[in-house]
Design brief:
The protein is built from ten helices and ten strands. The strands form two sheets. It has a six-stranded mixed beta sheet with strand order 6-7-8-3-9-10, with helices on both faces.
Length: 251
């Protein structure tokens, strides 16, 4: 299959009180079109920083990123706009990712209008997206604080799908939700991925969830990728001591 994303020797160091901390330490990996890839590890291991680098919310110190055959490492202008059309993110706390002064419907429509769609067409597409994520049309007029966490995350997924991206990055997208709601969101993501042929980068610390959803898994520790394989390979035959500890904490 064709690669949708290639990350090569990506590195990011932050400084606190002039003391360096390397959050992402020369990592390399790739994703196939339509693949669900899990990125797991404890808090602070560099997972979210990796997501921020791919989506240009942070700038890498070195390394490169290739999306659909195009180098996006230093994307700017039209190239950056195309990047945001191809890659969307679903965050851990959906209420925080919406403008509290705007309705969910307006939040979902925003990217479509920004990419040149007329408001009438954007509204029709927004209602279709709400149906896809199993929310009734009246949710278009509600504000983020007027819905539950699970309902808001469904709206956030609808927003991520609005301009038909090729890759969606879910950064701990279910960890702030109740267990029963988590299962519903996971099932929704799996259904949408199958139907739309999406590539999904699932960033989480939950190996059981990764085993259920992902085709492959990367284990991250102290900024490095220390292990990779299918979920069954990694869980049943871990090679690294850190991976064994991670597995023992879950199973």
């Amino acid at each position: 299959m064709a690669k949708i994303l290639e990350v090569k020797n990506l590195k990011k160091t932050f400084y606190k009180n002039k003391i360096p901390f390397t959050a992402v330490d020369s990592i390399s990996f790739s994703m196939e079109k339509g693949e669900c890839l899990g990125l797991v590890g404890e808090s602070g291991c560099g997972k979210s920083t990796t997501a921020r680098l791919i989506t240009h919310l942070a700038k890498p110190d070195s390394g490169s990123m290739i999306l659909n055959g195009e180098d996006i490492t230093d994307a700017a202008g039209k190239k950056l706009k195309q990047l945001y059309a191809d890659v969307q993110m679903v965050f851990q706390t959906p209420q925080d990712s919406f403008d509290p002064r705007c309705t969910l419907g307006d939040g979902i429509m925003e990217s479509m209008i920004n990419h040149g769609m007329k408001k009438k067409e954007a509204k029709q597409r927004m209602l279709e997206l709400l149906e896809m994520v199993e929310l009734p049309p009246e949710f278009a007029g509600r504000y983020p604080h007027q819905v539950s966490g699970g309902q808001c995350q469904r709206a956030a997924i609808a927003r991520a799908l609005a301009i038909e991206p090729k890759l969606i990055i879910c950064d701990e997208a279910t960890s702030a939700l109740d267990v029963t709601v988590q299962a519903q969101i996971v099932e929704l993501l799996r259904k949408l991925q199958r139907e739309m042929g999406l590539a999904l980068l699932l960033i989480c610390h939950d190996l059981a969830l990764v085993q259920e959803m992902c085709d492959r898994v990367l284990v991250m520790y102290q900024g490095r990728i220390v292990e990779e394989g299918t979920p069954d390979e990694v869980i049943q035959n871990p090679q690294q001591e850190y991976t064994k500890i991670l597995i023992d904490s879950v199973f």
